[in-house]
Amino acid sequence: MKILQPNWVHHDEKSIFSIDIHPSGEKFSTGGQGNDSGRVVIWNMAPVVDEEAEKDPTVPKILCQMDNHLACVNCVRWSGSGTMLASCADDKLIMIWKKTAGGGIAFGSAKTAEHWRCISTLRGHAGDVLDLAWSPQDQFIASCSVDNTVIIWDAKEFPSIIQVMKGHTGLVKGVTWDPVGKFLASQSDDKTLKIWKTSNFSLFKTITDPFEECGGTTHILRLSWSPDGQYLVSAHAMNGGGPTAQIIERDGWKCDKDFVGHRKAVTCVRFHNAILKRMAPKGNKPQQYCCLAVGARDKSLSVWLTALQRPLVVVYDLFQDSILDVSWSHNGYILMACSSDGRVACLQFNEEELGKPLPEEEKNSLYQRMYGKDITLDLYTQSNKDMIIEYPDVLDATQTKLTAPTLIPQAAAGQVQVEKSTDKDKTTTVSQTSVKSAPSQEAQRPIAKQIETKTVDGKRRITPVFIPLTDDVEMPASGSGQFSSSSASRSSIITVEKKTDLSTGDDKATASTSSSVDNLVEQTVKLDIRLKKRTPPPNRTDRLEHLPKLPGPEQGSEPSTSASPQTPVVSGKVTVLTGKVTRALGDYRVQVWNNAVKTGYGALCRVAGHLLSIPRDDKKIWESVIGSPVVSLSLSKKYVVFCSLDGSIRYLDIRTGSPVLPVMSLTSPVVQCTFSANCKLAGVLTENCTLRVWDMDEQSIFLNGSCRDIMGTSYASIFHLSDNGIPFIVLANGSSFSYSKKLESWVVTNGADPVMRHGLFCSKPGPMVRNIKSFPLTTIQSFGNFPPTNIMNFLKCTDNSWEIPASLAFVENQIKIAEMINSPTELKHWYLMLGFQLAQHGTEDKVRQVLDRLLGTTFQLPTTGPEATILGIPKTTLLEEILNQLKTQPQWQRIYMEYTEQLKLRLNADDDEPKESPTVS
User: How far does the chain reach from its first CA to its final CA, in angstroms?
Assistant: First the structure.
């Protein structure tokens, strides 16, 4: 294997976010940042792989450059036929490019070899478009965006929208088509992966388990489907507190395996387009398998063959920043990757290393066995437009013998005959020796093979092929696995040897497989990445072991009383922003590039502000630099705040970039920052649980506190600041709190308390509307993720006498919270709910207690001034609302009449009271 880094492939030192190889293998495209615009470049592949072509001045390197996008390009993808190229960007647009006669201009005045023009611009997304994918046969394009939607476009009739799918509740960052044509998969920041049915583009399956532990996410989440349609591999997932690439089997959508070992989040995965095969030793049946590349934020790239027990190769520090995209050549041996550091790399394999692509007739025969139909069938000649991708003739024929939702029959693909050693004096590893041919109508799954191990005590163990035989793989020393440059003019090259420990048909070959684990050559860097069974989610204490450590007491941190000394209390994870990060609000957009400027004093972070109404050829309105990497930022209509890894905080005017406050520093980095909606207040939450709120108008401290008491073993996932300065914190475990400055304490707004769980379950205020400004309490409580099964268990109790007092206690607590957080609309609602509960289940003593509290004393009812209202609502209004609830129940008629008469007397007395006459001087 060779690793090449053509130094002439760049975007003027700007980030490259996407790369894709043309189906012919003769060219490739890149997308990313340009000079004040988004850039798409088409490059010649010949100078990359051939040194003579690279040196030949007559061989063009760049074929065409297009700077039509108004903002950074996030993804480029060739159509299956190679006649069109699609690109999507932060300008909310998707552009379709097609080659025409003539040449183009790029990099100054150099004339390019090809001319590609935009034949269609697709407008439909309300935010940055992060990923796109062509469907089989190029009939559709699927795109996803930060507007939480996936859009299906008709690629034959641009710019027609087929469907807008709105199932996600977070930024959608990856999308991929099932090569069989039945499903579309998308992955989002809402910690879900969704499977959509392509017959009507309806939601078919939501997968959440592998992503529940994920905290911060990546710029993109590029997932991929295997070419045989059997496996879907996601991007960023978590297992045991570590980042993984999750494997989802089509058979039952099982999620019990994943690729683990990358030290940081997996950003992109991509399968080779072909099913590969290799002849097994001693004339055994050829092995068929798939090939997958995995890229991550730890700058490493791993390549997997599903017939190997460990990665084929892993390359460390391939780039200086995160890997953002990878691409395989169709039916070839070239893998290309790009990074946010603005460079690309090319890995050249050969047939001995990867295997031979399965011929088209054998591939069709495999599909015939697995799905009952030739995959090369023209999908789009069906008369029923709703069935264009579903293969109705295939599904109708197999519906009676398949169990939804999988296309794979429940019966095993074949019976395995295993040779077993009877020697009990030693442990013998036995491999699969033969497979009986399965009937053609059953799905043969050539990838799933097993190894049986018989131990000394007679126990049998079945080990998945992907699991390594040993786990004592050491991390490489600094600098190992990196390529070295031979010259400045020539691309960097390194040759890496590998050993393929394929499962063979005899015991001797299997034994060599076991021994080869310890004999991997140094060039194949021994990253501890392997396929392993998924472990149960760790408890919160386990999670905290992976969080950054807090400074010691000498730096200002206080010892925690709610956690063990080994488990520091933190409010969240500190994650340095990678690549180009963009945030927009109203007419303004702010961009951040960490490590964008290299100086003799260290790397600088570049920040810039843009006015969206300015034409694309105008300059940005301001630009500045920061001396420490940005870990968090937030925007308001007036200000923008940048929080750095060194604990410094910078508040700038969003219109001019000028500082509003001097640079401040806290004892630990900020994990959450926010503004109130009226821009008057600004708050931050640091890693060591420090809470600060500043008055931006007065330029003074408004609140100085700590949230250490409420963290326990969880961490903050949402931080909100109301217009009147009340902070709200939602924890990852579903609990939520608001701070009372008057009480100097945290008030519980949601928690695992059974009374609160039962109250939220049984006293819902109608359809959930998340409007933090108008309904802060309801919105904050809606983020609780406690399972409803616990509540149902309470409802099944034989003794239900607790329900009525629990409901009343919950409603009255909601009233006090609404009063404390100054939410009059919700206060009135919960008084109505209190009246309803009293009318249904109240006692006379309780009813009178509530009514007397609102009516006042027998001889005095204040009707003016602060004592006569609650949050501006007259107490008489609340009293009338409760009385209207009571009158619906006959048992309260006497009390209703009594208090109604008293209310009338008080109101009439106030009307008859003489008013002070004005004096005339």
Answer: 104
